[in-house]
Amino acid sequence: MKRFMAMLNRNKNKDPPPPKLLDLAEKLCKTLQSSSSSLEKLVEAMMGCKHKMYFLTNIHIVRACVLLHIRNGQHDRACKLLEYCKAEEKEELVQLWHEVHYRRVMERQQTDFLTPLQKFRCRKRNPPPTSLCPEGLKNRNYPEEVRQSLHRFATEVTANPDKKQREGLAHQMNLQPIQVYNWFANYRRRRKS
């Protein structure tokens, strides 16, 4: 830690700082995860210097900063940091974004965990910003023509196809047989209610 602080002070006017500084910060973030007071000092030093955005290109540093903000109950600050960081690992940043909102809901409801349904609702209410996923969130629904074909088969042929029919439909629509099986099971379940 002392070595990092000395190196940070020595290179505070260099633009960009040496890569060794970023490597040392990454190693410290990994090793100080459990020691919150030391990690807090490290994060304050990195976020207080003019090279803040340089540090926020490393996913390990971003994760350490976000987890520290969550621990301190600073959810908005963690979200802002995620929104403006320049790390390349977008999927991990989206997971951190969701984690911030899960923790916020758990604190509000004074609980230690969330059910899968609560997590789903939390993700729907708090979608990640376009800076984290520019292509938008993945849509898990099948394309319209696939749904229409499956629906037509269910109404015209059978709502309970056998294994051979499911495999044929799966091959025809470029799906896995289990996906076709689940679609028909859900279709029958929806019709009952």
- Helix residue percentage: 55-70%
Number of helices: 11
Q: How would you characterize the largest beta sheet?
A: none
Question: Gyration radius, to the nearest Å?
Answer: 24 Å
Q: How much of the sequence is in beta strands?
A: under 5%
Structural class: mainly alpha
Care to describe what's here?
The chain has two domains: 1-132, no CATH class; 144-192, Arc Repressor Mutant, subunit A (Orthogonal Bundle), CATH 1.10.10.60. It is 68% helix and 0% strand. The model has no long low-confidence stretch (mean pLDDT 88). It has eleven helices and no strands. The protein is an all-alpha fold and 193 residues long. It is elongated and about 75 Å long. GO terms for molecular function: DNA-binding transcription factor activity, RNA polymerase II-specific; RNA polymerase II cis-regulatory region sequence-specific DNA binding. Residues 153-193 form the Homeobox domain. InterPro entries: HD (IPR001356), Homeobox_CS (IPR017970), Homeodomain-like_sf (IPR009057), SIX1_SD (IPR031701). This is ANHX protein. Keywords: DNA-binding, Homeobox, Nucleus.
What descriptors fit this protein?
mainly alpha; Arc Repressor Mutant, subunit A; 2 domains; 11 helices; 68% helix; nucleus; Homeobox_CS; DNA-binding transcription factor activity, RNA polymerase II-specific; DNA-binding
